[in-house]
Amino acid sequence: MSLIAIQMTPQNIYDRYHAHVYFDQQTVERAADICRMAGEQFEVEVGRVHRKPVGPHPCWSCQLAFEAAEFDQLIPWLDAQRGSLNVLVHGLTGDDLADHTDHASWLGAAQALKLSIFQPREIA
């Protein structure tokens, strides 16, 4: 199952977030530089630069984890820095499927995610 999240501007409505910077072999150095700079300039946790698709991500990516307090400064900066790179931004609510669909937005072009890795949450 794959789905492209609705294209909308990221909104600061969750407590915590991930931003996944997508890249390929030609843009890996630019993406790594952006992620490194984000880690230096903002209170974000910079993940590994994955040179293969990982999890639901259809291409190479690097994850930035951050709190709502960083959102209003980080997201416009990331949008200005990304050039032609696409960035998935999503809230962290504990429901991985919803986080990557209902709680997701994009800087750049939306990509189809590999959502089959997520199990729907059980209703108690």
From TrEMBL:
<dbReference type="Pfam" id="PF08883">
    <property type="entry name" value="DOPA_dioxygen"/>
</dbReference>
<dbReference type="InterPro" id="IPR023389">
    <property type="entry name" value="DOPA-like_sf"/>
</dbReference>
<dbReference type="InterPro" id="IPR014980">
    <property type="entry name" value="DOPA_dioxygen"/>
</dbReference>
<protein>
    <submittedName>
        <fullName>DOPA 4,5-dioxygenase family protein</fullName>
    </submittedName>
</protein>
